[in-house]
Amino acid sequence: MAAPHGGGGPARGSIHRRSREHQHPAHRAAAGAGEEAATQALKHLAVLLLAAACAAAPALHEADFERVSNGMSGEDVRRTLGEPTRTEAFPRQKQVAWTYAYVDLWGYFAFTSVLFDDGGRVVGTAFKRKEPED
Fold first, then answer.
1. Does residue 77 contact residue 100 with C-beta atoms inside 8 Å?
2. pTM for the full model?
């Protein structure tokens, strides 16, 4: 017995959607534009969230790192500089690095890492500037 709507496809008025390759070209273009707009919106949202995170964190300056000295505890460093941007363990050296990202006096992105020994005390710092590509 045949289906009541008279065909093997979905019933008229059903919410079945065709795959993109079976859509009318105008519908395909509209769907593509919608996907592109959604991607752009997500990119804008990511930029806004990053900006909000940067605005919420205290702005660090090179002089702030001069207040860090060997022998300080992790809690002392956290009070002085705030939460690190990233942490990384170096098991062979028995050290941990807390890296802070900021903009230096010249306007370049810079990274300073505070190095801790396995006892949790500062043993040094390392500085790296990200200069623009030529």
1. no
2. 0.56
